[in-house]
Write the structure tokens for this entry.
Amino acid sequence: MKKFIFAFILFALLLTVNAAPFQLNKRATTFGSCPYPYVDSLNVTMVTDPPKSEKSDSFNVSGNLTQVDITKNQTLLEIFYCNPDGSQIGDYYSQVFNESIKAGTQFTVTASDVPTPKLPDSYLILVIIGDKDNDPSNPYHVVLYACVVADVV
Ligand SMILES: *[C@@H]1O[C@H](CO)[C@@H](O)[C@H](O)[C@H]1NC(C)=O
Ligand SMILES: *[C@@H]1O[C@H](CO)[C@@H](O)[C@H](O)[C@H]1NC(C)=O
Ligand SMILES: *[C@@H]1O[C@H](CO)[C@@H](O)[C@H](O)[C@H]1NC(C)=O
Ligand SMILES: *[C@@H]1O[C@H](CO)[C@@H](O)[C@H](O)[C@H]1NC(C)=O
Ligand SMILES: *[C@@H]1O[C@H](CO)[C@@H](O)[C@H](O)[C@H]1NC(C)=O
């Protein structure tokens, strides 16, 4: 009987230890609209959520551009990681659309191999759709058509 109790306590302890880090990390990333007028919103889900520092992640991005068409081989999906002050962390991810999509049409696009930079404790994730802007002072490199941001703390 004593042996049985010991095994049970050990088992319970193992369960607690395994569950603890999982609960600490249990925070689904929530994306909200960017503070710009005339820019559409998007729904974003990630396979690894929250993302793991210096691994890669997969993003599903869906939405409906209300003003403009998405142009095949031209319109870009971009993903930026930033510090809470807005400064960029590492390189940004960019992927060109492989199909044209008319304004007012629901679409989903997958970015399946997005490298995650070395992440600080708090950071922002920006997901953007737009057409290339050659103005070097534009930090997003595109004219924004859609944009959402998540504040991960
Ligand atoms: C992303 O979309 C694909 C295809 O629609 C689906 O199989 C996958 O489960 C989605 N992933 C997430 C994280 O929503
Ligand atoms: C995001 O998903 C919700 C729930 O499915 C939907 O009501 C909303 O219209 C979607 N937003 C966009 C921009 O697609
Ligand atoms: C799109 O880009 C691919 C690869 O760069 C090229 O093969 C294809 O011809 C392009 N299509 C159009 C419509 O420009
Ligand atoms: C675009 O790429 C996705 C995968 O990234 C693929 O599922 C889809 O069939 C492609 N569409 C076209 C028109 O090539
Ligand atoms: C996309 O947005 C337009 C304008 O708001 C709306 O009329 C249309 O019904 C939407 N389409 C879908 C598929 O949500």
Observations:
- The beta strands are 31-33, 42-46, 56-64, 76-82, 93-96, 106-115, 123-132, 142-152.
- The chain is about 15% helix and 40% strand.
